[in-house]
User: What shape does this take?
Amino acid sequence: QITLKESGPTLVKPTQTLTLTCTFSGFSLSTSGVGVGWIRQPPGKALEWLALIYWDDDKRYSPSLKSRLTITKDTSKNQVVLTMTNMDPVDTATYYCALGWGGYDASFDYWGQGTLVTVSS
Amino acid sequence: SYELTQPLSVSVALGQTARITCGGNNIGSKNVHWYQQKPGQAPVLVIYRDSNRPSGIPERFSGSNSGNTATLTISRAQAGDEADYYCQVWDSSTAVVFGGGTKLTVL
Assistant: This one.
């Protein structure tokens, strides 16, 4: 059974750095073709892709947020970590992690439940 | 950067066929994936690689992709199909791209 779960702070202050952890089970991020991505969704708005890390440690970032994002993986712990610097109230959103299985243009087959992050002083 | 365009809303009568489009430059050359999202829930994959249904997705859901438009078709629409639908592609310059989403209303 494949599961993903996001964890991290629910409230961060403006200018702070957000660190989110995606803990997964049922697959290995060392398996060829596997990728784990982060997607966010501001309240009432559309999905926005943030970052993706692949089994071979290739990393891709949203061009508009690239300067603020870092994605890493810990294969032994079955975790993927996303950091986002210089948080702003517009970054308030539900943050999802999701599994893509099938190479670089794979779909996100499994999603976590999401975690709501509020940016406010 | 690559962009995907979806209608903000689509309405369909109960039992009829709904079509949700996703426009992009030469999108027919890309693999298109579709997600369904109901209020308060995470997105669920309903179509992958243009026209393939994951296990557990009803045959009423189908997809096509050609030229500059991909289409998600929902046949015999049910009240439970009311949701937001998002298309997604992978682009060599932008990596992952989502459309802006379409709210499906079943009348």
